[in-house]
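Morning, I've got a small favour to ask if you have a moment. I owe you a coffee for this, so here goes:

…
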Amino acid sequence: MMSQTLGVLALLLLTYADCQEVRYETKTETTNYGPVTMVVDNLAEIAVSVSDDTTIQLEEKINRTRQNIVGNIEVLTANAMAELSDVIYETNQLVVSNPDCNPAWSLDELNENVTRQLGGCTEDLGSLLEDFRLESQLALVRVQEFVQQIAHLPAKCQMLGASPLNPLASAGGSVCFINAMAEINLGMAQSMHNASLILVQTHQTAEDQVEQAQLCSAMVVQQIGDYLREEQDQCRQS
């Protein structure tokens, strides 16, 4: 969609430039199938509409990526706790019914310990999420700035063509629009490219970190499970 947007903006720019060669001269204004300002306004509106659609899609991709990272963290934690739930319940029941086997037993402390260790497993994903939130927001704002520049471009260029003392005023306004759109097109292309890189790199990094977090969580589950089963054995022998 981003490449399509840039193609549309480039096409609008070429269309306007070509139209400058087909004009009707009147006593009051230079027309291009209508007033020049009307053509500029229409082209700018089309460009803003297309760019807005692209910005919305970019924002949706950013939100999906952020939600995926959050979802991965939640799933990893939930799966690990689910694997430990039975052995935690069994150990707690056994210790509570035999208080002499482990007077220092605390289910709350155990749960806090498990949560802390699992949190360490997903710490890198949490950092990635925060970095992505900041970088993607800046990238989105940059793209939105170019959309605003397009929206304000007709009024800006119209000022150059408003001087009655300048015989080239109308041409100046046209040149302003063509040059500014070309510059905006390049800037938006770079901004969208940067946003795409952030999305791709974050996706790849998230995949790698999810794999590492899964290994870490599996180790935590194994260690906590072994500890609790040992507690059960000792409690039964006491």
